[in-house]
């Protein structure tokens, strides 16, 4: 089973640690594509910092993010599960998982990254700022770049297991399941109140973090979307399963409290 998460926009920059070694990252088949993005991003932020603010959508009040990108090759690194922050990762709370669940997280969870394509939670990376919908000089659209290069990495990471796809729309565009669609489950969280259901962004992220945490702690290793829905129900969640499509099977997790 592979659990695929979106990145967080906010990241914690480590104050110390070894510099980035692309060769040490999981899925080395992605290293040429990673290096292209890294080099283009660093060059932009080193040579055209004012232009980088607009291209990267960086707030005028946070110019330090340009400097952060300019130093990616030398910047301190930390485990990815300490770099990514925000609502989903706070709810997942990798540092407080049980030892067994931490081992499962290391082998079963990966994060979609605009810079690195895919990273494992134990991969050491620097903090960076690059959104998935950016058009980067020298690369073009980040989504298109990874659509052209991510397939070998996804094939290796997924193997013959099932994919639990929790990516947001921007990062889902990096790669779409094809032959693996029958063993792909996408998960949506809906808040139900007074008979009406809607997606609430903040709570959607928090619930996804809790879902992943519960799944890792339980030790469940479902092999298809139906078994995953059953696993979530066994953990106390209300789940509705959609019909299979060419993108996978959608599971709606229904919650009544925020």
From TrEMBL:
GO terms for biological process: response to hydroperoxide. GO terms for cellular component: cytosol. It comes from the Bacteria. Residues 1-21 are annotated as: Disordered. This is Uncharacterized protein. It comes from Nocardioides albertanoniae. The lineage of its organism: Bacteria, Bacillati, Actinomycetota, Actinomycetes, Propionibacteriales.
